[in-house]
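Record pair follows.
FIRST:
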Amino acid sequence: MQIAEPLLVAIEELSKLPSIGKKTAQRLALYLLKSNGEQFESLVKALEDLKAKIKFCERCFNLSEEQLCIICKNEKRDKSKICIVEEASDVIAIEKTHEYSGLYHVLGGVLSPLTGVTPDSLKIKEFLKRLEKEKAKEIILALNPDTEGEATALYLSKLIKPLRIKVTRIARGLPIGGDLEFADEATIGRAILNRGDF
């Protein structure tokens, strides 16, 4: 069966998105093709703005429109606590719980020697420099409970403990091998409230 080249290209590009297979990509492409011009242009503009206007916070590496993200600029946040997460999606997941009022630090991944992710690939040096300037009393490790997350947590705890800063980890309310961003709000909230020493 022959498919028009622009439609074929659109299906191919959409299928590159996470969790989007060829059939879903085809349905999305056909939906976009049928949508009115205003709806289509609105989506295109939103995607262009996403790429053009969003950058990383220069302090915590969360997503932001400005040099500092909304959380880092918020004077009401508890500056004595810094929660270390893998990705910005984890910040969103924790914020939805309304159980945490401290700051964050986004590593941009976890250690994975097999795929070439080393400490230099992550925002670990930036975090240690940040600790020199800020008066954090507690570092909360909120990394996914999988092999790479555990290895990263252990590595970080060995770097932080000599600084005489309390290191805790979120409670084990999350399934082993699961991703933080896919857990429900109640589970993440309970995990934050019941964190323990690492």
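SECOND:
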Amino acid sequence: MTTPRIAFIGAGNMAASLIGGLRAQGIDANAIRASDRGAEQRSKISAEHGIETFASNAEAIQGADVIVLSIKPQVMKEVCQDLAAHIGEQQLVVSIAAGISCASLESWLGPRAIVRCMPNTPALLRQGVSGLYGNVQVSPAQRQQAEQLLSAVGLALWLDQEAQIDAVTAVSGSGPAYFFLLIEAMTAAGEKLGLPRETAAQLTLHTALGAARMAVASDVDASELRRRVTSPAGTTEAAIKTFQADGFEALVEKALNAAAHRSAELAEQLGQ
């Protein structure tokens, strides 16, 4: 597939991560451009990645095959309405903004090929995961372009229905914070058990990292991995039984349902 020309509207952290991932894949700097309101941010991203930057969004998208909307949801309507007259029929629009539906984007940009995606913050380390949904106008070639873009910062998974974006938000979009909360709690508990705080933190962090790597590399699911490390009447079983006695699984389900519900609420509010 011919390398697509990609224009980023907004050059913040996530855009910089995607640009860095694309450059690491060998995509030529001449195939990437970005616009941003801030002169300092334009200078920074141009110096780091060797790409051309613009103060004008309309200038940035000229000649691009893919337009990536990497701006805050609160300004999306204004930016899209300003861009609508400048976007060509063959250009693919990819939105990485949370809470903005394809229907809202089409109402501001007009009917066109749109891919909506939800990456998460580990994308900044190229260890992210993204859920992608494309509307009916997206061609097979454009699906490949969108997948290439998001694969530059981690795993890219296609969704069958746009409503599943809310579930992706609950599981992986917000998910890193859940693990950070567990890391906080385990570190604090280790300290109360008598460990120096730094020791408790390092033990917790590297245990989390090792467990995640084992789960990713394993050919069995997490429940089987848990069973294998839980000896009958042992220390792990004592901890697991305590989690379960206090309704750990139900609490996780309740938390994810709250996140998904809030995601749907925000989509309704921001899409007006």
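COMMENT: Strands lie at 6-9, 32-35, 52-54, 66-69, 92-95, 114-118, 128-134, 154-158.
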